[in-house]
Design a protein that fits this description.
The chain is of the alpha+beta class. The protein has four domains: 136 residues, Uridine Diphospho-n-acetylenolpyruvylglucosamine Reductase, domain 2 (2-Layer Sandwich), CATH 3.30.43.10; 116 residues, Uridine Diphospho-n-acetylenolpyruvylglucosamine Reductase, domain 3; 112 residues, Alpha-Beta Plaits; 86 residues, Alpha-Beta Plaits (2-Layer Sandwich), CATH 3.30.70.2740. Helices cover 39% and strands 19% of the residues. The chain is built from 21 helices and 16 strands. Strands 13-10-12-11-15-16-14 form a seven-stranded antiparallel sheet, with helices on both faces. A hairpin with a 4-residue loop joins β5 and β6. It is globular, with a radius of gyration of 23 Å. The two termini are 43 Å apart. The chain binds flavin-adenine dinucleotide. Flavin-adenine dinucleotide binds next to β3, α8 and β9.
Length: 507
């Protein structure tokens, strides 16, 4: 009886997936436009369905067509329009490492492809299936296992939402050394899998430094215990680092140990207007020199970005209109000292005519209001005509050159080209708005933008990773032998290639 119910459910899931394929107007869009073929993985059968049900029960195994939609689809329009939804008919929601291990071992033994899924906020099509891969979601692996007040190390499961984790450690005066606009949805496991950067990387460094330990389940179900709570632990190879930024292609991250610095009790935010990029650059060098250890973020926005935020969100620049805007945040432990330092820096910038105007916020609600101008940019872009989004690193002398080059290259094809980003980390977000998506425009932008980034000695992916969308360009970004070494590493950890196929490595 149970088997029959399962089979019926399975058949309806398969039907759903077929219907899904039919109702999806762009069903073979991904396959055609990107010239990618489904690899020779097995398709789900009733006995597979039964196995997963035995482990997770019906409630943690999603097959309902409507519910599957959110696991198959990107939510950000700029990605959604260029990749058709996956056609996966099943999402699994384990709660423990043991469950993940059993699921992956079974998938490996049965040649079933798997797509690890966190908060689905990555912007390169990494977390959604390309074809019918089984979605393996970390959303119920959301337990905070330990917060050590002495060392400041938090140990948690991979599905904890970044903001929840930060709120938890805030209770004992600590902070998560990572902050990004998607903090209310993204998972710490997704952050580690993408080596996320964000607004505070400039001050606190990247996850390779802040993640002290990881637990990862490999494709064959082996649990790799690379957990450590020490900053110093040189016992052999640093395996955890291989999984940071591996985007679900080498294993499924189940636990994370993260060092948390003390939460700053004095935060100040300056919002400044500047005349040209040369002055932006000089202000950056001066800020590093004058503000030193209290400088915690350095962000830039250009005029088109600010105008767009004004227009769509009715959020005005608090200081009037300027060609460039800077958000400079300081955080420290002594309000008087920090405020003196910032004011001296700003006075000196004004005297030297580096900065034309500015405002300084010290109260939390004012700080949040100004930060939200920057943090809400992706929300604004969500609703515009159509947007091509890029995330590159560039040497600072070439930082804005790419925006100018792109504006010129696009001519009338673009409505606007926007440049903003984490300038303190050389990270530029470049976005091109057009009336509607067409293949011709896409081909006009790519690979031009990646080739030009290379010519300017930049990296084609600063923080979002390669995912599905940029995997084809890995050969452009990295030398032949390096890509080969990556492919060999993939074969070592995942010989059957079931973990997140078609992502990161060129197909
Ligand atoms: C508004 C907004 C602002 C953003 N700002 C920033 C920013 O400032 N800096 C930045 O770096 N990024 C930023 N991003 C991108 C995104 O938030 C990050 O890449 C984030 O780390 C993704 O986490 P996630 O849990 O949503 O992962 P997902 O999108 O679910 O997955 C991302 C990749 O990781 C893999 N993955 C997820 N969980 C696991 C796991 N447990 N084990 C193994 N693999 C896994 C997936 O297969 C996929 O390849 C932003 C996105 C948005 C929407």
């Amino acid at each position: 009886m149970l088997v029959r119910t399962c089979c019926n459910k399975f058949i309806s899931a398969v039907k759903s997936s077929v219907e899904y394929r039919i109702i999806c107007k762009k069903s073979d869009f991904t396959k055609n436009i990107y010239n990618v073929n489904r690899r020779n993985f097995n398709k789900l059968e009733a006995r597979h369905f039964q196995f997963f049900k035995d482990i997770l029960g019906g409630e943690r195994m999603i097959t309902d067509q409507e519910e599957m939609r959110s696991y198959n689809e990107e939510w950000m329009r700029c990605v959604k329009e260029i990749i058709s939804p996956g056609i996966s008919s099943m999402a699994l929601k384990p709660k423990t490492t043991e469950e993940v291990s059993k699921i992956l071992k079974f998938c490996n033994d049965n040649n079933l492809a798997v797509c690890p899924y966190g908060g689905n906020t990555g912007l390169v099509g990494g977390a959604i299936p390309v074809f019918d891969e089984i979605v393996l979601s970390a959303e119920l692996m959301n337990e905070i296992l330990n917060v050590d007040e002495n060392s400041g190390v938090v140990v948690c499961q991979a599905g904890c939402i970044l903001e929840n984790l930060d709120n938890k450690v805030a209770e004992i005066g600590l902070m998560i050394p990572l902050d990004l606009g998607a903090k209310g949805s993204c998972h710490i496991g997704g952050n580690v899998a993408t080596n996320a950067g964000g607004l505070k990387l400039f001050r606190y460094g990247n996850l390779h430094g802040n993640v002290l330990g990881l637990e990862v389940v490999l494709a064959d179900g082996t649990v790799l215990d690379c957990m450590s709570s020490f900053k110093k632990d040189n016992t052999g190879y640093h395996l955890k680092n291989i999984f940071i930024g591996s985007e679900g292609t080498l294993g499924f991250i189940t636990k994370v140990a993260l060092q948390c610095p003390p939460r700053a009790n004095s935060i100040t935010l300056a919002f400044l207007g500047l005349q040209n990029f040369e002055r932006v650059l000089r202000t950056f060098k001066k800020a590093k020199q004058d503000l030193g250890e209290i400088l915690s973020a350095f962000e830039v926005l250009d005029t088109p970005t600010m105008e767009f935020v004004n227009e769509r969100l009715k959020m005005n620049s608090p200081i009037g209109d300027f060609p460039y805007y800077l958000l400079i945040e300081t955080s420290g432990s002594n309000e008087e000292h920090d405020s003196d330092k910032l004011h001296q820096f700003l006075e000196s910038c004004m005297e030297k005519e580096l900065v034309l105007d500015g405002t300084v916020a010290t109260e939390p609600h004012k700080i949040n209001a100004i930060w939200s101008i920057r943090e809400k940019i992706p929300d604004v872009f969500k609703d515009c005509g159509y947007l091509f989004c890029y995330d590159v690193s560039l040497p600072l002398e070439n930082y804005y050159v790419l925006v100018d080059d792109m504006t010129q290259h696009m001519g009338k094809l673009a409505k606007k080209v926007f440049g903003f980003g984490h300038m303190g980390d050389s990270n530029l977000h470049l976005q091109v708005e057009v009336d509607e998506f067409t293949r011709e425009i896409k081909n006009h932008i790519e690979p031009f933008i990646f080739e030009r980034t290379k010519q300017l000695n930049g990296s084609i992916s600063a923080e979002h990773g390669m995912g599905f969308l940029k995997a084809r360009y890995l050969n452009l970004a990295r030398p032949y032998n390096t890509v080969k070494a990556m492919e060999n590493l993939k074969k070592l950890f995942d010989p059957s290639g079931i973990m997140n196929p078609y992502k990161v490595l060129p197909w």
